[in-house]
Design a protein that fits this description.
This protein has one domain: 3-Layer(aba) Sandwich (Rossmann fold), CATH 3.40.50.720. It is an alpha/beta fold. The termini are far apart. Helix content is about 50%, strand content about 15%. This is SDR family NAD(P)-dependent oxidoreductase.
Amino acid sequence: MSSNNTTALITGASAGIGACFARFLAAQGHDLLLVARREQRLQELATELRAQYGIRCEILAADLTDRQAPKAIMDYATEQGLEIDVLINNAGLSGKTAFSETPWDILDAELQLMVTAVTELAHRVLPGMRARGFGRIINLSSIAALSPPGGSLLYSGIKSYVFLMSQSLDMELKPYGIHVTALCPGFTHSEFHDVMGTRDAANHLPGILWQEPEAVVKEGWHAVNKGQPVCVPGTVNKLLAASMRPIPTRIQYFLGKTFNPFKES
């Protein structure tokens, strides 16, 4: 049995940062609900984690480009008697063609996966978190959210939304014991570039720009527990982010919180 009474829901859990989060949280005694499209990969990971750490680990094969998926995930959690205390919104992808040349159904799926599903899952876990007075939400943004806008692709805009949305939620929810962090990694060793077909280009980047997913996960988890609304993992990424943002993130967060028109007076 688990020694930790909290349960973490992790999307995109079959590989990369998501799988690293699963292993990291399992090692700390968290029970898990793992979600991804590849059921076989989830089954293999769940078997490994149950055997190694003695935790409860449930899986659900779901495609978050489906508008019904967030509700189905939470319905499944309820059926299994799981209360979600930790949400890792990790599932994501990046388009490979210019906006104007991409069919709308592909763009729609991208927005559903990384904007709507991320937001809906956060919204659906909050009632339970507020009732229990505890919650941790990590939303995978990107250092691209801190970069100058790039042409054609939606990725930077989507990650900017996640970056700002996470800070807004953190401002609202911290008084209820709920911390929300936008985790903004740079280039990370994972299957992401293989799936996106950008491995050749990625291999030409300097090694100093790359991080291992385990390091990203560890720093992100530390940040959310410390109540930090933004986490840019890695020294190189921190330097890059500082050079791209004229006003430091912590000052932007302070100003946004101070001049929030909806806060209680």
